[in-house]
Every structure is written in structure tokens, then in C-alpha cells.
Amino acid sequence: MSDNNTSEIKFLVELDENRVPEKLFWTAQDGGVQQSETKAIMLNVWDSKAKESMRIDLWTKDMPVDEMKIFFHQTLVSMAETFRRATNDEKMSDTMLDFCDYFAEKLDLKQ
User: Fold this and answer.
1) Of 65, 70, 72, 83, which is least packed with CB atoms within 10 Å of its CB?
2) What is the pTM of this model?
3) Is 109 exposed, middle or buried (0-12, 13-18, 19+ CB in 10 A)?
4) Domain ranges of the chain
């Protein structure tokens, strides 16, 4: 192994007899997270050779639908913010955030 610093993030998925996630846990020691339980995971990775994204979307069978809607909204907002930081494209990130507002309004997530 090289002298470079490394960091590891782990996901543990407990499955039922039908291979449906019952419990999800994640660990990120550098972030102080150890076997923390969660109800949903969305992970996207970029394959630069194939020029395509690959993803893993998992949620437990007891993830409440109302929480899934909030999770999606917050994920969309964070994607818009990440897009802004990654591209400096203010106009498109603002457009994405406008959609996030619309999404929240249609799902009655606004408080």
C-alpha cells in the first residue's frame, strides 16, 4: 500500500429470506460513524471508461413512504447544490432548486 491517506465507507445490508433489505447500517470512521442504522441508501458512482453512472438504491421494507418522500426531496436539493459546486452553473442549479420547490409543494412537504 502507498503512503497516501485512505478512508473507507462501509455498508452492511441484512436481508430477509427473499433477499429484501430488512436492516441497513453504514460506517465511516473518519466521520465518526460506526454501524449507524439507516432506512435508505442511494449511492451513485461514475464509470469514466463507459461514461455512465451506476447506482445502488436500497431501502428497508419498513421505510415509511412519507419519510421516503422527504428523503428524495432532500437528495434532490443536495444534488442541485453539488451540481452548483461542481460546475459553477448557477442558472441550471437554480432551475434544479426551483424543481425541488415544486416537488415539495406537490407532495405537501412545505411547512
Assistant:
1) 65
2) 0.87
3) middle
4) 1-61, 64-111
